[in-house]
Hints:
Layout: H1 6-23, H2 34-41, H3 46-53, H4 59-68, H5 76-89, H6 92-95, H7 99-115, E1 120-131, E2 141-147, E3 152-156, E4 162-166, E5 177-182, E6 188-196
Antiparallel strand pairs: 1-4, 1-6, 2-3, 2-5, 3-4, 5-6
Helix pairs in contact: 1-2, 2-3, 3-4
Amino acid sequence: MHAGDPAGSLVWAVEAVRVHAIASGRIESGGIGIAGLALTYGASNVGSCLLLDAGLPSRLMAKRLLAAFPPSYDDRRGFGAWLNNVMLTLKPANFWPDEGSRRLWMEFLSRRSARAGGEWKHEVQEVAVEWDGDPPAPEKPVRIRHEASQMATLVYSPDFTFLGKLKVPDPGIATCHVEVFVLPDHDSIAIHCFGPGR
């Protein structure tokens, strides 16, 4: 949503009415504010709205989760407990029908655990790169960015010239600060990741 967006204005108007009604004592506080979430995410039930608001990128995935794990909450605190239980119970390889859904689920879990905090670590990982042309000189810094839409982790020069991609995508890089250098073998890079354990 951006300035001048009618849908965004409608969401803000609905939330303003709800907050005013709470402040004037016309309704009780503590509710979720489903109308604004429903308008924002295009979902029709509390469970789907909260999953999408938490960062799950697909209404179809939300629907599948809610069908398999019926919600047992009526507020955000209950939603958090329910979602933690789902995360512990669900076996991605058996539950999600395709690789794309499994990757989106794992990225969702990574983002959620990063927001939850935890002890930060320094990890170094050596990964193979499929270069688009000649590789940079050893020890040269490069940048990497995971593109979920392409299901690929792309490698760039410091000025963002495309250089290639990791042979095995790594969506976990989104959860930490990274420094990346080309290794002497030219076929791989060293990723120094600073952040919550991956």
